[in-house]
């Protein structure tokens, strides 16, 4: 029974746009630092997506790689996975690359919505 509860908590964390446990571990539980990192990620993610779209396929791989690392650091696993997929798709057909960036943008939007909610909570 205890294992089932642990599995459910782990699945809920994996399904969340941001794993709050991962974020707390990375910031040693410092709420002020958590807030600062979330604000930084929010701005950076938006900026990197704009640059990916403006720079074309050649810009996607390095920018997606940067976003993947930032997302991993705050526990945004969905963004990290989508960024990794975009990074791999950068060398593929333009339509495939564009679709991967679109999927990444959706993951970023989900994470940014949660970040906005978390920042409002204080």
Give an overview of the whole structure.
There is one protein chain. With 122 residues, the protein is mostly helical. 86% of the residues lie in helices and 0% in strands. The chain is elongated. The model is unreliable at 10-14 (pLDDT under 50).
Oligomeric form of this entry?
Answer: single chain
Helix/strand class: mainly alpha
Instruction: Please provide the count of β strands.
Output: 0
Q: How large, in whole angstroms, is the Cα Rg?
A: 15 Å
Topology pattern, helix = H, strand = E: HHHHHH
The average pLDDT score comes to: 89
Summarize the structure.
The protein has six helices and no strands. It has helices spanning 2-15, 20-26, 31-55, 57-74, 77-89, 94-121. Helix 5 runs antiparallel to helix 6.
Which short descriptors sum up this protein?
122 residues; mainly alpha; 86% helix; 0% strand; 6 helices
Give the arrangement of secondary structure elements:
Layout: H1 2-15, H2 20-26, H3 31-55, H4 57-74, H5 77-89, H6 94-121
């Amino acid at each position: 029974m205890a294992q089932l509860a642990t599995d459910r908590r782990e699945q809920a964390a994996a399904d969340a746009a941001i794993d709050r446990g991962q974020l707390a571990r990375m910031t040693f539980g410092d709420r002020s630092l958590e807030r600062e990192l979330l604000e930084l990620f929010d701005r950076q993610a938006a900026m990197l997506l704009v640059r990916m779209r403006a720079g074309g396929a050649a810009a996607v791989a390095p920018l997606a790689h940067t976003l993947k690392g930032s997302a991993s650091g705050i526990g945004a696993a969905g963004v990290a996975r989508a960024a990794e997929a975009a990074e791999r798709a950068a060398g593929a057909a333009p339509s495939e690359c564009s679709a991967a960036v679109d999927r990444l943008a959706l993951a970023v939007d989900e994470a940014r919505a949660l970040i906005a909610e978390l920042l409002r909570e204080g």
